Amino acid sequence: MRSGRLPQGVEWAVHACLVLALLRPDEQLPAQRLAELFDLPPAYLAKVMQDLAVAGVVVSASGRHGGYRLAAAPGELTVGRVVRATGLAEALFVCTEIRGRGPCAATPEQCRTPCAVATVMRRAEMAYLEVLDAVSLADLPVPGGRAAAEQWLTAHVHRVKERS
Amino acid sequence: MRSGRLPQGVEWAVHACLVLALLRPDEQLPAQRLAELFDLPPAYLAKVMQDLAVAGVVVSASGRHGGYRLAAAPGELTVGRVVRATGLAEALFVCTEIRGRGPCAATPEQCRTPCAVATVMRRAEMAYLEVLDAVSLADLPVPGGRAAAEQWLTAHVHRVKERS
Ligand code: FES
Ligand code: FES
C-alpha cells in the first residue's frame, strides 16, 4: 500500500464522490466543506481527495471560488475507478519476487513466467474489480438521503461565474 | 488494516506455507530457518507467522525441537484462509459509519439497513475470496521447484521424536 494509505480511505472517497455527484455543472465544493459535511479531519480527507484528483476521478479548481467536482458524469464513473484511486492494488497484494531470494531461489529462467502465487492473487483482484466496475456512482443512493445533502450543498457550493 | 500490516505479508505467508506443505507429519521448521530460506528479516517474518498461527493456519511448537508446521493437510488449506489470516478484510475496506456524521447524517432509522457503499464493497470482497477459496496449497507448485526446497529442508527441519 502507498505510505500513509488510510484504511477508511475507500469509504471516505466513495461517500465524497456521491456528494459531488449532486453538484450541477457550474458548481464545485471546497475540500474544507467536504470535511465539515462528514465531520472529518480536513488534512486526512484532503489526502484522499488528492489521490482522487491524481487518478482523474475528480478535478479541482484553486482560488477563491475553487473546489472539487467529479471529472465525469456520475453514470460514467464506476466504484472500481474510485477504489483503484485510493491505492487498492498495493493494499491487496504486493509481489516482491520472494521466489528469487535465498538458498532455494528460483532461477532467472523460472522467473520468466509469473509466479503461481501472484497469478492466483491477480485473478482474485480481477474478480474483485469486476464487481466494482459494474456499479457506477449513479447506481448508489446518497447515504443519509439526497434531499438533505442537496439542501446543505445549496448553502455551501461555490458557483463558477459563467463567462459569456 | 491491523497496525503494522506488511504490504508483502500475503506473498510471504503463501510462500512460507508452500514450503511447510513439504514437511512430513513429524517435522517442523523454526521461524528463523524460514527467514533464512527466503532471506527475509526474521522479526517481520515472525509477525506474519504469528498471524497465521492465530488464524489456525499453522501450529507452532516451542522448545529446542520447535518450529512451525501446517495445521492441516495442504489440500485442506485454501489460499483464501492464508490471505484472510494476514488481515485482508481490514486492508480491503473499513466502514467507520461515516454516514452517521456531520450536518447531513443519516438517522439511526436509516442506519438500520446496511449502507449501499458497504454492501457493494462486501460483494466485491466475496468475489475476491471465492477465487482464493477455490485454490488450495496443494494446487500450487513450489516456486523455485520442489526438489531444491526438499533438499534444503532435509538439512534444516526439526524432527519430533516419536513417542511410543
Ligand atoms: S514471487 Fe511474488 S508472489 Fe511469488
Ligand atoms: S457508512 Fe460506511 S460505507 Fe457507508
TrEMBL record, chains A, B:
PANTHER family: TRANSCRIPTIONAL REGULATOR-RELATED (PTHR33221:SF13), WINGED HELIX-TURN-HELIX TRANSCRIPTIONAL REGULATOR, RRF2 FAMILY (PTHR33221). This is BadM/Rrf2 family transcriptional regulator. One of its GO terms (molecular function) is DNA-binding transcription factor activity. The lineage of its organism: Bacteria, Bacillati, Actinomycetota, Actinomycetes, Micromonosporales. It comes from Actinoplanes teichomyceticus. One of its GO terms (cellular component) is cytosol. Pfam families: Rrf2. Gene3D superfamilies: Winged helix-like DNA-binding domain superfamily/Winged helix DNA-binding domain (1.10.10.10). InterPro entries: TR_Rrf2-type_CS (IPR030489), Tscrpt_reg_Rrf2 (IPR000944), WH-like_DNA-bd_sf (IPR036388), WH_DNA-bd_sf (IPR036390). Signal peptide: none annotated. It comes from the Bacteria. PROSITE patterns: HTH_RRF2_1 (PS01332), HTH_RRF2_2 (PS51197).
